[in-house]
């Protein structure tokens, strides 16, 4: 496996860790059952993303332990969200995913050959994963009914 793929895979995994910390923290501040449901699905999705990636990370000799500095950074980001309205939180999430995370997640699939089916499948799933978060955030911003359906449809253990 090439070095660039390993670096990108590690970054994507760290992105899942950061997302998990953010959504876990936001879940604690949910103001009603709808918000709890949305944040719970987001948290579950980030956790499952990490779980899907771990066998490949181990196979490639890459670390899977929690990154303490990143954990703290995720908590700081979530703390800054507490001053925002629910919709503003998702406007921020939408922009972060669109401008930073999605391009990196999609890059992952360009760095692997289809012949390595495990890596290829993980890379493609992670792109789909991030596109689903973007769509869910957009649905929340636009007040679409059942906004987290794109996420729930991909969950192995839906909430």
Structure description:
- The chain is globular.
- It has helices spanning about 5-25, 35-60, 70-80, 85-110, 115-140, 150.
- α1 (about 5-25) packs across α3 and α1 (about 5-25) runs antiparallel to α4 (about 85-110).
- It has about 160 residues and is mostly helical.
- It starts with a helix and ends in a 7-residue tail after the last helix.
- It has six helices and no strands.
Give me the secondary-structure topology.
Blueprint: H1 3-27, H2 33-59, H3 68-81, H4 86-110, H5 117-141, H6 149-152
**Tally of separate helices:** 6
Structural class of the helices, strands and pairings?
mainly alpha
Determine Rg (CA atoms, Å).
15 Å
Runs in which pLDDT lies below 50 for 5 or more consecutive residues are: none
What does the largest sheet look like?
none
Helix content: over 70%
Principal-axis shape: globular
Order of helices and strands: HHHHHH
The total count of strands amounts to 0
Distance between the termini: 35 Å
- Write down the overall mean pLDDT: 92
DSSP strand (E) fraction? under 5%
């Amino acid at each position: 496996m090439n070095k660039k793929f390993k670096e990108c895979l590690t970054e994507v995994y760290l992105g899942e860790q950061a997302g998990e910390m953010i959504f876990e923290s936001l879940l604690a501040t949910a103001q009603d059952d709808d918000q709890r449901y949305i944040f719970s699905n987001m948290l579950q999705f980030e956790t499952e993303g990490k779980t899907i990636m771990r066998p490949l990370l181990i196979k490639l000799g890459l670390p899977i332990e929690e990154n303490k500095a990143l954990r703290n950074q995720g908590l700081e980001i979530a703390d800054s969200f507490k001053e925002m309205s629910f919709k503003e939180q998702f406007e921020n999430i939408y922009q972060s995913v669109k401008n930073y995370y999605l391009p990196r997640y999609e890059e992952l699939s360009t760095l692997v050959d289809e012949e390595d089916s495990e890596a290829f499948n993980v890379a493609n799933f992670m792109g789909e994963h991030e596109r689903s978060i973007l769509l869910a955030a957009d649905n929340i911003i636009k007040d679409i009914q059942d906004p987290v359906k794109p996420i729930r449809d991909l969950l192995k253990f839906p909430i």
